[in-house]
Amino acid sequence: MASTPTQYDSFQRQAANLTPADRLPLDSPYEISNELYGLLRKVLHDLGGQPDTPVPFTEKGEEDWEMNTYLTCECLGWRGVWNSEERRRRENDLGATQYFGLPYYARWITTAAKALVDRGLITTDELGRKMDEVRARLEGQRS
Amino acid sequence: MTTTPTPRFQVGDQVTVRDATTMFHTRTQGYVRGHTGTVTEHRPAWIVPEDEAFGIIENGRYTPFYVVRFKQTDLWPDYTGFEVDTLETECSELWLEPAGKEKK
Fold it and tell me: Which of B21, B23, B54 lies closest to A86 in CB terms?
């Protein structure tokens, strides 16, 4: 049985309760310990070996927007705009909040949009306006 | 990047993964750094991920890649599996030193 996003959020909270986070909030400190620096000298996506609780294995069907994202990103590579390694690096560059907060393919498409902004092909306000427009259209279809 | 570089290591060589700082991008997992394994396979030479990730292709460092096999019990102090269990991962030559030669 596949878990719903809500169930998954609940699993995450349960896991967080099993291993309570014992850490200081990171707030641009004046000094950091060598231990913390040791963590920061690795890349965000390098998760292997970190302690966690078991996660249920579930098969999830691919949705149209996910495959459209995949193809868009591959075509950007095919046309020489970027390569897969640059995409992975840009996913890290999103920072922890967006990297771990967004679904897998949402991370891809956000990264692709940011690459277009970085290259001056679109502006952030154009992008935001388009996203709001699409959201309004979809909300209109659902209501 | 048209000439294929000569691999520094051969299949069967013992290599140690450098424990290098990478603030922005790498594909070399933190858990293999500082550990020694055995080269099991040559992979096609390519641009190191540290260059490719920044779009540095033409002038990127084009190096041999290797599959390196580690003993699971070497990687994880609390490993509860079998003694014979191994893990293989891929490293560019940039990350590898001959075993025993690495700086402590």
Answer: B54
Report CB contact under 8 Å: B30, A83.
no
Q: Which CATH architecture has domain B14-96?
A: Roll (2.30)
B78-90 pLDDT, tens digit per residue, is 899 999 999 999 9
- Please state, in angstroms and rounded to a whole number, the distance separating the CA atoms of residues A108 and A89: 11
Cα separation of B63 and A35, whole Å? 32
User: Taking CA atoms, what residue in B is nearest to A95?
Assistant: B24
pLDDT of residue A23: 62
Q: What is the CATH number of the domain that holds A133?
A: 1.10.472.20
Packing angle between helix A64-78 and helix A104-118, nearest 10 degrees? 40
Distance CA A32, CA A35 (A): 8
Domain span including residue A130: 64-142
pLDDT tens digits for range A75-86:
999 998 899 999
What does each C-alpha distance from A82 to A75, A97, A115, B39, B99 come to in angstroms?
9, 24, 8, 31, 36
Would you give the DSSP letter of residue A76? Answer: H
pTM of the entire structure?
0.81
Query: What is the C-alpha separation between B19 and B104, in angstroms, rounded?
Result: 10
